[in-house]
Amino acid sequence: MMTITLITGANKGLGYETARRxxxxxxxxxxxxxxxxxxxxxxxxxxxxxxxxGPTDDGxxxxxxxxxxxxxxxxxxxxxNAGTAxxxxxxxxxxxxxxxxxxxxxxxxxxxxxxxFLPLLRAADHPRIVNVxxxxxxxxxxxxxxxxxxxxxxxxxPATKAALTMLTVQYARALPGILVNAADPGFTGTDxxxxxxxxxxxxxxDAIVHLATLPPGGPTGTFQDRYGLVPW
Length: 232
Ligand SMILES: NC(=O)c1ccc[n+]([C@@H]2O[C@H](COP(=O)([O-])OP(=O)(O)OC[C@H]3O[C@@H](n4cnc5c(N)ncnc54)[C@H](OP(=O)(O)O)[C@@H]3O)[C@@H](O)[C@H]2O)c1
Description:
- The chain has eight helices and eight strands; from the N terminus they run βαβαβαβαβααβααββ.
- The chain is α/β, with parallel strands linked by helices.
């Protein structure tokens, strides 16, 4: 039986590496990307199928869900990975309108995609959702002197990831038939941080791959990095 896995923002960075690794593990990976050119190129390189999906664009999400329903009839694994650190504005400059950009993709994106794909996940034998959160969404890590997260003072990005982690906990409670977990990749070199991240993309996808391949009866409502549970 094929394992059908959809990854948003899979045209580069952690999403791309997650796609590569899950294909290696035998998943049928649908490479989600908002841009057809970037998505097609990535899918061709990976030997996978491109699916246009921009989590902030309702029409594209509905079309993607309709296509997966028609072509596969179910979805085993949903990986909400697309995200941004924007707007990179401090508290003094931050306006509500500017903050919308970060919340739109990091928080409302996963809600929109999860809502659209829930019927397809329910049609799978052992459905899993992985929300790609961040250690900067952990109050413990942000407040702990000496951590990478402690140095971060941008208001919006950490707030979006704290929201995504809490959504994960709430979805896990509400959806007992689905394993819903949040991953903290760790500080990983991608375009996201102009490749200042110290981990390789393979290290950065360990938690995502682990949570995407959990066996039936595995944990749900957890927040994990490559070393194990992340403190809330
Ligand atoms: N790298 C790290 O150190 C790190 C640490 C913790 C958490 N994370 C999280 O990991 C996830 C992936 O990050 P990454 O490091 O792989 O970053 P990346 O290389 O910049 O990739 C981000 C992906 O998200 C997509 N995306 C961004 N904004 C979007 C929007 N408004 N609509 C649709 N797609 C959008 C991008 O598409 P385009 O190519 O079309 O822009 C791209 O596919 C993010 O959720 C990020 O918050 C990263």
